[in-house]
Amino acid sequence: MIVATIALLGFGQVLFKYAATTLQPGDLRSWLSLPLAAALLVYGAATIAWLLVLARVPLSTAFPFYGLAFLFVPILSAWLLGERLRWSTLVGGLIIIAGILVSSRQR
């Protein structure tokens, strides 16, 4: 459930980016877009899911998984928005995964 919640947060970030490309600060109607509403809905669902995770898992165990967002968001933005995915992001993601494995290891 932790990984699904982080993936949902990542998807919400990509929706926010997509919505941001259509926003015009001086035009309030542009703030009522479907992409922005979807982003807020997804992020709200992810926040509720994160609370459910925290009700069951110690924060010190759950929080390191939050680092996966630094890998999920660039991968999703490359796939869905056509943004460039850099090798350094993938290498950094592997380091994050290694850190999660080390920090979540049972004693």
- The end-to-end distance, rounded to whole angstroms, is 22 Å
- Count of separate structural domains: 1
Give the helices and strands as they follow along the chain.
HHHHH
The portion of residues forming beta strands comes to under 5%
Sketch the major β-sheet: none
Low-confidence stretches: none
What is the molecular shape?
flat
How do the helices and strands line up, and which of them pair or pack?
Elements: H1 2-20, H2 34-56, H3 59-62, H4 69-81, H5 87-103
Observed structural traits:
107 residues, mainly alpha
Q: Can you walk me through this structure?
A:
This protein has 107 residues and is an all-alpha fold. It has one domain. 71% of the residues lie in helices and 0% in strands. The chain contains five helices and no strands. Helix 1 packs antiparallel against helix 2 and helix 1 crosses helix 4. The mean pLDDT is 90.
Question: Can you summarize this structure?
Answer:
By secondary structure, the chain is mainly alpha-helical. It has helices at residues 2-20, 34-56, 59-62, 69-81, 87-103. The protein is flat.
